[in-house]
Design goal:
The structure holds two protein chains of two kinds. By secondary structure, chain A is mainly α. Chain A has 17 helices and no strands. Classes of the chains: A mainly alpha, B mainly alpha.
Chain lengths: 364, 125
Amino acid sequence: VNLVEIAFTVVLGLIVNEASDVSPRMAVLVVRLAARVAYTTPELKDTRTEEWAAIVHDRPGKLLKLATSLGFLAGALLRRSRLGMAGIASRRLHVVLEWVARLTIARGRRLRLYELLLAGLVALGYRPAENWLARLYELQQRFLGAVAIYWYSTSRHNGVGWLRLGTLLEMLGRIDDAILVYRQATATPNAHLARAELARLTNERAVLSQRDQYRAILTPVLDTEQALLARSAEMLSEPAVARIIRAQRREGVTRLLLGEEWDARLHCALLHDLDGDLDRALAACLSTRQDVAARWRAYELLERHDLIPPEDRPLLQVTLVPHVESQPIPYGVRLIHTLRRTTARDAGNPSGVAETLPIHAPRR
Amino acid sequence: VTDPIRITQPLLDVLEMLILALRDDVDVHGWAIMKAAHRSGPTVYGVLDRLESAGWVTARWEDVPANVNRPRRRLYRLTATGNSAASKLLAERRPSRSTVDSPLFRPGLLGRLRGMPRGGRGATT
């Protein structure tokens, strides 16, 4: 036995001794983390934290306390992976789940934990990666790359993807391609909105009344929600996921009824506008000041009703352009372009439109 | 009150345990359920979550004297609705199993449960 081995033994002994001493405290921290991971509501998180801490406290031995808490953490991670998958009820997730199901359930064997986790990770990473790539291509004006990605996003989806593609093409100045896309989009469930966009771009006679245009704006939202619900329903074969989805639906309905969700208020605004009550529509929009999309909608309402004073338009441009650039929501982009067009018109410089705008302005 | 979504063996184990505890007028905590049902913590708490959200069980915090420095246990008890529904469910799913075979009657455990009298209902939940 040499000196190094003696020192190693002593140090190892100290480490083990210290680790066993701190393990009860670590166990409490681990169960707190487990409760945070497993549950979404603050009350349940606090309840389970104390409850599991009591269980850990009752376990004999220091290391056994830590082992028990790690068991809770493992269960919580499994639960979270299911919850995370249920929360991202996207088509991409559905594709991943289909792939997993083909490999497992269809072959008559149970889903393994690592497969579930792998599917969750792929599904979590897929959408951000796709959005990042699409944005990169947009910023770099790489037409083909952007088209490829958005085209892919439309391949088995409802018409929202087509409309996103059309908007992108407008932004890139490819009006003919945008028209082509909108024509194609008329074969999708969002035909009304596609027709409205088509009419705007081709300067054809408006085929939709203003009322129908608002309905058309709501249609893709409702279609998307319906599609998501349908996909969620298909996931009901996994009972834990089903329970979470049901809970989320209950929560969603409650929030909708309470009017806490900005999109619920936005829908209210559109319905008020349908009824011709612009004041209430604006009030509904502006009651969601925290959300820039709602403000865009309010400005769009004002613009549509020709209520924005000409002197305010440059200020609005200055205010809104950074928002639009940071969050390219289609109607925000359209509003900016409308404002630019009307500003140029007011300044007696209609040619300025062509210089600054690669898109056709909405019909008035 | 809705039915728990998924009828599983752990659910039946937990219900069996809760029914017997109700007959003895004791409230049981999570660790006792885990021990009696021979199920892991995440499994038991998954079942308890479902039962609580379905309104089959109620929970309350145990009364801990102020001079005792330990976390409070949470005690569970079947509701009247839960009791009738659980009895019916167990009669359907486990008709041959007598209560004597229940894990609650394993030596030592019943006494531990009996040490957990009811009381303090309405405490923090």
